[in-house]
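Pipeline run #58 for the internal structure catalog. This entry was flagged by the ingest filter as a single-chain record with no existing model, so it goes straight to prediction. Upstream metadata was stripped on purpose; only the residue string is passed forward. Reviewer on rotation: M.T. Logging verbosity set to normal.
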Amino acid sequence: MSQPRSQTFIILILGALTMIGPFSIDMYLPGFPAIAKDLRTTIAEVQLSLASFFVGLALGQLFSGPITDRFGRKKPLYVGLGLYMLASLACVFAPNVETLIALRFVQALGGSVGMVVSRAVVRDLYPPEEMAKIFSMLMLVMGVAPIIAPSLGGILVSSVGWQSIFLSLTLFGALALLGMYLALPETKQPDATISLQPVKVLIEYVEIIKNRQFLIYTMVSGFSGAGMFAYISGSPFVFIELHRVPEATFGIIFSANAFGLIMSGQLNRLALRRFTTVQIVKFVNALQLVFGILLVVYGFTFWGGLPMLITLIFLYMSMLGFLYPNSGALAMAPFSRNAGAASALLGSLQFVVSAIVAGLVSAFDNGTALPMTGAMAICSLLVFVLLRIGGKVDKRIEKRAAVEQEGVVVLS
């Protein structure tokens, strides 16, 4: 991009589109008790609305990816944001929990389009060697969600009511749509050669996943994210129940980890001036694996007490600011014509892996920190193994990066 101001606006818009999912999740969590009371149900039933949202995100990305390749980025995004806003507004008037569960699924279907388009637009506009830098900039914007969303949701619930959360999400969708209309260019023209027939779409996804570079770095990104989901799902018990940390203090710890992730994402932009994406991913993963092993040691021994746990988790989570943008860029690099489908598959696989790991943390709950810390360590170990398996791919990437400043890396 030649105009810095235009790039800034585009990054803000893409960041907002990426934030739709996290904002829609984190913001309404404090409202669970109030929602359960108003709808005369249990918190466990309300939690199903979170599960339906996760399912909608995973399926929605798979459907919207090929559509954005076929019709361009903006038209499907108009439809997706419109659907997201309508479903968000309808949640305000949900008469029972069953309706809320269904509406959250529809809300996720609409919001998923923005998540797919944000990654695809980066691939449309920037050459592979610039993508990691742009993804790092996006983290600065989207990282705001886990910092402010829970607190903002809590304030809205206590002062206005849980319905105000969904009104706020409707407004957020409207602002994202307005920004997209005013400042986001159409980065891909419609392509009638791309089929939307289910069998052909499935074949395209199979071809994408057969790409060794895509598969390895999608799973690297997926297991990296799964380590974060293990922390998110296990940390309330570990901190609040096990260590008796007050809820307000837990919120500060949660925000500090999100802040660390954002800052490391910006340090990644500086690191990319001297090192390749592959070099950064390998080095940072090795560090994260060390932190993961120390977390397991803590789980057995409580070595260093609560301060050590907080420090190790902060260091572990901060490494994601390097792993996410670089692995995402490496996964997307081989694709241009079907970047939407690649983005969709990347997002869906990331989410599926993360959801499975988060579920396992809950399933293996034994009253200690080990399910959480063990899952975090195993995720880092799996990334370490994947990077060693992909050694030949890495050598080809680095060789190509050394001789090319622009262009598309295509690996079979």
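catalog note: Residues 1-5, 403-412 have pLDDT under 50 and may be disordered.
catalog note: The chain has 17 helices and no strands.
status: ready for reviewer M.T.
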